[in-house]
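Q: I have 443 residues here and want to know how they pack in 3D. Can you give me a structure?
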Amino acid sequence: MPSRSPYDLLNRKRRGEELSSDEIEWLVQAFTRGEVADYQMSAFLMATAIVGMTPEETAALTSAIVASGESWELGEELGFVADKHSTGGVGDKISLVLAPWVAACEVRIGMLSGRGLGHTGGTLDKLETIPGFRAGLSRAEMVRCIERTGCAIATSTDAIAPADRRIYALRDVTGTVESLPLITASIIAKKLAFGASFLLLDVKTGTGAFMATYETAHVLARSLLAAARGSGIRVEAMITNMDRPLGRAIGNASEVLEAMEVLGGGGPGDVLALARAQAERILLASGRFGPETASQALDDALASGAALEKAREWIAAQGGDPSFIDVPSKLGTPKHRKEILAPRSGFIDTIDTYRAGRIAVELGAGRRRQDDSIDPTAGIEVIATVGSAVREGDPIAVLSWSRDAVDAEELSARYLGSIAITEPPPIPIPLIHDILSEDEHGG
């Protein structure tokens, strides 16, 4: 007989016993109704962070969070529609390139994205630097936008997985954010509630990722695949490098502009390469393309200008003014800029990407507290990235900001402290480490 006592469940979890799916479902439902107190759920989260969960418990927690709110099931209404989630990185503007590029190939894609977390940037914070852009879409508005333009990126509504928001608020203040089963349930529950046909997970690893090593990223990827198994949604996980910032722009407005540059056929090679790799996986998953035709379709969308035109169309459909693509100053101009010069000659061997992300936050590109406002003009331009040859006195980065309370000298020194310059060039690290599917996981 499943237990219905919070006290009993907490004690059993603390002892490392496995809870049944019925017990976990009851606990989440009772917490959502207010019958289980915050302090009791906090104790459950701490016990989970310490002793872990079995894959079956993690799947049950995921299902319970999904059941706490609406299920949109967009794939059933729209036919094939793709979704993508990134675990967060520095300079990660891939979604801004991916959505219109895929849509320009006549494959539908929609995403419920988030805001910046810690040292990592948020897709919605970037998009909201565009004048008039509406990130808050209802289900009906999301459907209309995807039907009209082929793509949409929006914030999750209060009706999607409400239990997750309450649980995450407790995780944030109880030191349980990094618990693997809790991360897994939080990510997959929202994606299952969205209900796409195909989900691509970008699991980042390196100094700028929440999973610093390949081994921990691989474990998370497998956990995410296992939690989604049996949902009816096809899922793949791509483990990608976050040992250096993606592209050259770290910030909000600057990353939007860099994304548009890539869609116009230019921009940094790593952003183009990763966006292409992810777009190819989505086109292949749609069943309408093979490897050669997918690659050709993506090439054609860039060369013809269709990808950039699709970005204009999509931005306008969500209320934004796409004229900034032609007049970048419409996204704002920083009041202050400071060049950082190379202290010696050699090659950029490493960039501590976590530290670079924290510097961007201090400039105003992110939030130190949840209620902080963001300076859309703030950020870092990475002139010399990992592998770049530099000479003493060359500019290697530029800090930009508009607020007055910024200690530029200190942040410049911190940036120099985040890099290593060596004589031999570094050995290149692959941009994509691995691609895992449910079949390879054993599902």
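Q: Anything worth noting?
A: The mean pLDDT is 93. The CA atoms of residues 19 and 246 lie 41 Å apart.
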